[in-house]
Design goal:
By secondary structure, the protein is mainly alpha-helical. It is built from 5 helices and no strands. Helix 3 packs antiparallel against helix 4.
């Protein structure tokens, strides 16, 4: 983050007023936050292989790990929820990787799940 501060201080000389400079900085911050919410990572150049694992494989590993920790009836509920999630992923974004499942997709899934339950749209705030 220090590198970003230095870049912003170098930009300060281009603006006549401090308020214009602050407005520009706020715009840069908003753009970065929007990219982060969309799934962008500043460490994308490192090619972390775990990020490119298919979501279905991660769900299966998660269920295996949780089934040893939880009660059998809780495991049944987890499997049911994961089945719904896998079906939704197969419909919306087949062959998705872990890095593709971000806040936007999470909110879309939650909204679809709420609609499937028959609850009013504004019932739960996401």
């Amino acid at each position: 983050m220090r590198r970003m501060v230095v870049r912003m201080n170098a930009l300060r000389k281009r603006f006549a007023r401090v308020t214009d400079f602050k407005a520009h900085c706020n715009q840069v911050v908003c753009n970065i936050n929007a990219k982060l919410a969309g799934g962008w990572t500043p460490f994308g150049e490192q090619q972390n292989t775990r990020l490119f694992t298919p979501i279905e494989a991660v769900i299966e590993d998660y269920l295996k790990e949780k089934s040893s920790e939880l009660r059998p009836d809780t495991v049944i509920n987890y499997k049911s929820f994961c089945k719904v999630l896998k079906e939704w992923i197969a419909d919306v974004c087949p062959n998705a990787q872990c890095s593709a499942f971000n806040t936007v997709l999470n909110n879309c899934f939650c909204q679809t799940d709420i609609e499937m339950m028959g609850l009013p749209v504004g019932f739960i705030r996401i």
